[in-house]
């Protein structure tokens, strides 16, 4: 059944639905890559594709073949260039469709057990953060969740020490040889210090945010770890989760968010 007839074009309900869905998809991709270097690549690729459609419609066979080859190789290149954006996009979909995160649904519909306390005790971390923030000591703390962070640990100095507030304070003391970079915490242990984290190229981060904060966001984009930063300049605490940075979080809020985020199902 046709909805509109535009000259030789018959547009039906399905075509309208198709065009709307493609428009929403392109808009979502655009908002994800907006501001980054990848956005220029995205717009460039879109233009090449539109040019290809015109060339094909005109019946220019040689140019169509060349562009087809370019577009198919380009699709592979796009996946590599947009790694971070694709990951963010899938995480977003995964998060918004993960009904299993709702405690009521977990318990009564999925018949899954309750959530346990995080495997890493939060008290030493929170106490250390409070003190470091009060002293304006810069710090970067990565708390492992489910993803394997061996590569990150290997980029720094392996410690495998019991997690404690005094040890965290000693590491982030400005005279400590371990204070630069990030500390990696997993299963109640400080696995490593001086770790190097991936840096985010998110153009929407405030210009005042330096590399410590960009590294926190980058790490939370690339993995499911929770990352805490303490600013050396302002003493402000921030928390990065799934690529989002919560700037100027209070200790109380930090505790709530961490214990909720790091809780795992009881076996
Ligand atoms: N990629 C990274 N991985 C791990 N640590 C990093 C990384 N980039 C920066 N850092 C740490 O952050 C420290 C401070 O960096 P910078 O001053 O650029 O950050 P900032 O976000 O402005 O933080 P602050 O508010 O504390 O100044 C560096 O000395 C280093 O210890």
Mean pLDDT, all residues: 84
Radius of gyration: 24 Å
CATH class of the largest domain: Alpha Beta
- Sketch the topology as an H/E string, one letter per element: EEHHHHHHEHEHEEHEEEH
Q: Which strand-content bin applies to the residues?
A: 15-25%
At CATH level 2, the architecture of the largest domain is 3-Layer(aba) Sandwich
Structural class: alpha+beta
Number of strands: 9
- The CATH superfamily of the largest domain appears as DNA integrity scanning protein, DisA, N-terminal domain
CATH topology of the largest domain: YojJ-like (1
What ligand molecules are bound, each kind once? Answer: adenosine-5'-triphosphate
Shape: elongated
Provide a count of the helices: 10
Largest sheet: 7 strands, mixed
Notes on the structure:
The chain has 267 residues and is of the alpha+beta class. It folds into 2 domains: 2-94, no CATH class; 123-262, 3-Layer(aba) Sandwich (YojJ-like (1), CATH 3.40.1700. Helix content is 50%, strand content 17%. The protein has 10 helices and 9 strands. The chain has helices at 13-33, 37-58, 61-81, 83-97, 103-109, 123-134, 150-154, 165-171, 211-222, 251-262, and strands at 2-6, 9-12, 139-143, 157-162, 182-186, 189-195, 226-230, 237-241, 244-247. The strands form 2 sheets. A 7-stranded mixed β-sheet has the order 4-6-5-3-7-8-9, with helices on both faces. A two-stranded antiparallel sheet has the order 1-2. Strand 5 (182-186) and strand 6 (189-195) form a beta hairpin. The mean pLDDT is 84. The site of adenosine-5'-triphosphate (ATP) has 17 residues, from helix 9.
């Amino acid at each position: 059944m046709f909805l509109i007839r535009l000259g030789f074009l018959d547009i039906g309900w399905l075509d309208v639905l198709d065009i709307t869905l493609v428009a929403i998809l392109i808009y979502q991709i655009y908002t994800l890559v907006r501001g980054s270097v990848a956005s220029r690549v995205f717009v460039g690729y879109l233009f090449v594709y539109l040019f290809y459609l015109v060339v094909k419609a005109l019946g220019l066979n040689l140019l169509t073949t060349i562009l087809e080859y370019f577009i198919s190789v380009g699709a592979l290149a796009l996946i590599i260039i947009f790694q971070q954006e694709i990951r963010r996009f899938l995480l977003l979909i995964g998060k918004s469709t993960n009904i299993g995160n709702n405690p009521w649904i977990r318990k009564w519909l999925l018949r899954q057990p309750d959530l346990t306390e995080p495997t890493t005790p939060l008290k030493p971390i929170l106490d250390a953060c409070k003190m470091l923030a009060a002293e304006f000591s810069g710090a970067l703390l990565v708390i492992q969740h489910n993803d394997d962070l061996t590569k990150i640990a290997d980029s720094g100095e392996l410690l495998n020490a019991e997690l404690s507030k005094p040890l965290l304070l000693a590491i982030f003391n400005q005279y400590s040889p371990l204070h630069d970079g990030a500390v990696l915490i997993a299963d109640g242990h400080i696995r490593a210090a001086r770790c190097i984290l991936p840096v985010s190229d998110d153009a929407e981060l405030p210009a005042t945010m330096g590399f410590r904060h960009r590294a926190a966001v980058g790490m939370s984009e690339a993995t499911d770890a929770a990352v805490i930063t303490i600013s050396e300049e302002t003493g402000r605490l921030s928390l990065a989760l799934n690529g989002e940075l919560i700037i100027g979080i209070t200790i109380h809020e930090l505790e709530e968010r961490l214990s909720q985020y790091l809780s795992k199902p009881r076996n």
